[in-house]
Amino acid sequence: MQEFDHIEAIWAQHDVDVKISADEMLKQAKKEVNSIKTKSLLNIVGMALSIVAIAVLWLFFDFKSITTHIGISIVILAIAIYTFILYKNYKTLTNTDFTRHPADFIADLKSYQIQRYKIYSKLYWFYMIALSIGMILYFFEILMMMSVPMQILTWVITFGWVVFCSTLVRKAVIKKDKERITLLIDKFERINNQFNEPK
């Protein structure tokens, strides 16, 4: 078993130089960039649709309490601000043509990665706090119409969902984003190096 571990350690240290053509690497990288762009765009569209859904709810239901109106306003504002931040982050990725300016695109990718980390770390907590305050104010009127067991069930499900999204889902998204973008940056740096190598 020790021999196997020793061979595995030697193999891990051995740097295999696999030459992939710059065109093939560029094709793979382009596919990954398009995948990230599509995912980001779908996220933005989803957030925008949730604003529309909440606004429709607000318009067609006759809420009596001022706290409900304030709560819905806070929720819509929080989602709108977060959507705008996601859109700005998306524009960072789409502003540079990586086939004409690979070095600029690598810088944009690094900037995109830092912005994504901020979105899912510091900014996320402001978003969740604003969303939670809005939901509490919104639920104030709605819960008064429910029985006590339904009120408790609503609070437990809502709180559980917020905790689940804020811990497990958020951490998984941060890790996956970081790995994916780091790999993409590495690919573009290798592509850039291959193009800049003297013939």
UniProtKB/TrEMBL annotation:
Keywords: Membrane, Transmembrane, Transmembrane helix. The keyword Membrane applies. It comes from the Bacteria. The chain crosses the membrane at residues 40-60, 66-87, 124-146, 152-169. This is Uncharacterized protein. It comes from Pedobacter montanisoli.
